[in-house]
Design brief:
The complex is a heterodimer of chains A (225) and B (221).
Chain A lengths: L8 H4 L8 E4 L9 H10 L4 E4 L10 H6 L3 E6 L8 H8 L4 E4 L2 H12 L4 E4 L13 E4 L2 E7 L3 E11 L5 E2 L8 H6 L1 E11 L19 E4 L7
Parallel strand pairs in A: 1-2, 1-8, 2-3, 3-4, 8-10, 10-11
Antiparallel strand pairs in A: 5-7, 6-7, 8-9
Chain B lengths: L13 H10 L6 E4 L18 E4 L3 E7 L17 E9 L2 H9 L5 E4 L3 E3 L4 E2 L15 H7 L2 E5 L11 E2 L14 E3 L3 E6 L2 E7 L5 H8 L3 E3 L2
Parallel strand pairs in B: 1-2, 1-5, 5-8, 6-9, 8-10, 12-13
Antiparallel strand pairs in B: 2-3, 3-4, 6-7, 10-11, 11-12
Classes of the chains: A alpha/beta (225), B alpha/beta (221).
Chain lengths: 225, 221
């Protein structure tokens, strides 16, 4: 019997090795898997590379990991937040590495990683600091820079509903990076608000098919930031 | 830099700039709103216009900001403010959202800016402050991907320098991308022949606008 449901958030993040690369869903607080991030902190894993839209704020989630010095490198599009102090201080002190990626390029690099594509050319970033040092091609008369795919050891994502196969349905704009990150990690771990019996999710409505998911844990619904 | 004549000029409020921009958006357009001032547009769309707002975080058909019981912390705009969804709205994931942007499916985008050059170069993600945390978000994708790029900003910096410049001195977001600039003082189109002022506030002459902007500029004939 296929059953991807695990009992606790500790089980959900067990085995995350030091030095792992971790995709974390969320756009601000929407879709951020807070319970999984707390469990990851508790697990003691360190030297992590975190790929996420933001670099954590408000002293919760990614910000807690950053503050506890567990994060070696952030790959993100928008680290600056009203309460992103934890990251800001370490960044200014040169104690955390930042790879800044345009948001569409970040989403597409992850999509490519999950789809078995090595990389792609895009006009985004050409002629700017963020395009410097990258291979350039002129395609149909447009200058484009090469961007490499992103794959990771682990994805931590948040969805609304799951069944034991790991089929997922999301809520509102909390969907954001979840469906693409689920495809690009060796182990995709999902926190959901509710687990439903197999067969009760309408196949027409499933957003992430269970093939991309390894572990599901049910947590109490929690407010976003 | 001080311009004494500005004392007699009534500047456009952010709401008035938003309304001015909406005049230039055709019915049926799909429009992305950047963070900061442009997000205000969602509260100024007249109910008799069908304009679909796109939010980069995966929503098409965004409505005004949510209030009271409408607030759902997981339905937010690009600035992470809680918003409403209008009838006909659609939700999608981030890669799809940026495929819409980068694939040329979004008609128009309104972004804030630090500087815009006379050629339409845009600088809006990083200043020269070495202590500032760089953050680019979706600006580079939007600037190149949409059919029309509008900038909404103050005309002058706090110290009175024009934000419309010959060449951007801040790091670029995109080259030759801006189509039209809407400020608290004027509306200016970026054309192949240079900057063309379309309208400006009462109490300000074209010569004064030209003078305080400090770059070559024509007025609409």
């Amino acid at each position: 019997m296929i059953n991807k449901i695990v009992a606790t958030v500790q089980d959900a993040v067990s085995g995350v090795a030091d030095g792992s690369s971790i995709l974390v869903s969320g756009f601000g607080g929407a879709g951020l898997p807070l319970a999984l991030l707390d469990a990851l902190l508790e697990s003691g894993a360190k030297n992590l590379t975190i790929v996420s839209n933001n670099a954590g704020n408000g002293g919760v989630g990614i910000a807690k990991l950053v503050l506890a010095r567990r994060v070696k490198k952030m790959v993100c599009s928008f680290p600056r937040q009203p309460e992103s102090g934890a990251f800001d201080d370490l960044y200014r002190a040169g104690e955390i590495e930042l790879e800044l990626v345009p948001q569409g390029t970040l989403a597409e690099r992850i999509r490519a990683g999950g789809a078995g594509i090595g990389g792609f050319f895009t006009p985004t970033g050409y002629g700017t600091e963020l395009g410097e040092g990258k291979e350039v091609k002129v395609i149909d008369g447009v200058h484009q820079v090469f961007e490499k795919a992103i794959k990771a050891d682990v994805a931590l994502i948040k969805a609304e509903l799951a069944d034991r196969y790991g089929n997922l349905i999301y809520h509102g704009t909390a969907r954001n990076y979840g469906p693409v990150m689920a495809t690009a990690a060796a182990c995709t771990v999902v926190q959901v608000s509710r687990i439903v019996p197999l067969g009760s999710l309408n196949p027409e409505h499933v957003v992430t098919p269970g093939v991309y998911v390894q572990r599901v844990v049910c947590v109490q619904p929690q407010g976003a930031l | 830099m001080t311009h004494a004549f500005l004392q007699n000029v009534v500047r456009r409020s952010q709401a008035q700039i938003a309304q001015r921009i909406i005049q230039d958006i055709p019915d049926g357009a799909h429009v992305n709103l950047g963070i900061g001032q442009p997000m205000r547009l969602s509260n100024h769309l007249p109910p008799d216009r069908e304009i679909l707002l796109h939010s980069e975080n995966g929503l098409l058909g965004m409505g005004p900001l949510a209030v009271g019981e409408q607030i759902d912390p997981e339905i937010v705009n690009a600035g992470k403010q809680a918003v409403t969804m209008l009838p006909g709205a659609a939700l999608f994931h981030h890669a799809d959202s940026f495929a819409m942007i980068r694939g040329g499916h979004i008609d128009c985008c309104v972004l804030g800016a630090f500087q815009v050059s006379v050629k339409g170069d845009l600088a809006n993600w990083r200043t020269a402050d070495p202590k500032a945390i760089p953050a680019v978000g979706g600006a580079m994708d939007l600037a190149l991907g949409v059919k029309k790029l509008f900038v909404m900003m103050e005309h002058l910096t706090k110290s009175g320098q024009s934000k419309i410049v010959e060449r951007c001195t801040y790091p670029l977001t995109a080259l030759e991308a801006v189509d039209c600039i809407y400020t608290d003082l004027a509306t200016m189109e970026v054309t192949a022949q240079g900057l063309v002022a379309l309208d400006w506030v009462e109490g300000l002459s074209f010569e004064q606008l030209h003078d305080l902007t400090g770059v070559a500029m024509a007025q609409r004939s």
